[in-house]
Input
Amino acid sequence: SAAPTRAPEAGTGVFSKGRAAISTRTLRTDRWWVPPLLTVLGLAAFIIYATVRAFVRTAYWVSDYHYLTPFYSPCVSTSCVEGSSHFGHWVGNLPMWIPLGFLVLPFLLLFRLTCYYYRKAYYRAVWFSPPACAVAEPHGKYTGETRLPLIIQNVHRYFFYVAVVVSVVNTYDAVMAFHGKDGGFGFGLGNIVLVVNVVLLWAYTISCHSCRHITGGRLKHFSAHPVRYWMWTQVSKLNTRHMQLAWTTLATLAITDFYIMLVASGTISDPRFIG
Ligand code: FES
Output
């Protein structure tokens, strides 16, 4: 089908002086809009699911096996159901409009929002800047991340540090979940779900571009810093998978939460191997 066309506007965006004078928005004839469309659908599905689950305050803790969904971790309010507050109560009861995971959810959102991969994804799919390679953006001006508000994206590295702390908390939750019905050690399908999720969360976090810079950036001579060079090499390998990990962890987060919801609500029972 024919690509959408529009008249060049003098001096703006891709129609500025010095750019090739092409009047159509794109000469591409393939279905270039499929990846941005899938991105929007995927992100929207996760955001809707996560928002609903973050607010409902039901079925987030399995008291028999100590499974806690990552969406409610750490649960530090006295509104949290008994047993789910691994780190104690830091605040009293919370009104319904504040999610019980309020302590970390905003940081996790900002960590992903400022992530180098997600930026690429939503700049293309949501902001159309540009929607795809060789497809002109509809915006008159392009300032990139050089001024407010997008210059704030530079704080990503600080959210990385918070994300590391949150990963430690999630790891602690996953270890505490090896709990049997009658106390002591227990092991069920939920443990596999929780451990897979936490391992992938670590992989996503460590594959962060900021982490790569923190481990190996600003070094003049790798040969003088063998340990940092080794760490940078490992992080770089994971970093090539950052996009896949970004999507995989959205899926595992939702699956983990959904599984715990099913068990906690009594809809299914957790297959147990021990305890
Ligand atoms: Fe994606 Fe840091 S670049 S999490």
Q: What stands out?
A: The radius of gyration is 23 Å. Helices lie at 34-56, 105-113, 116-125, 156-176, 189-206, 209-216, 226-239, 242-264.
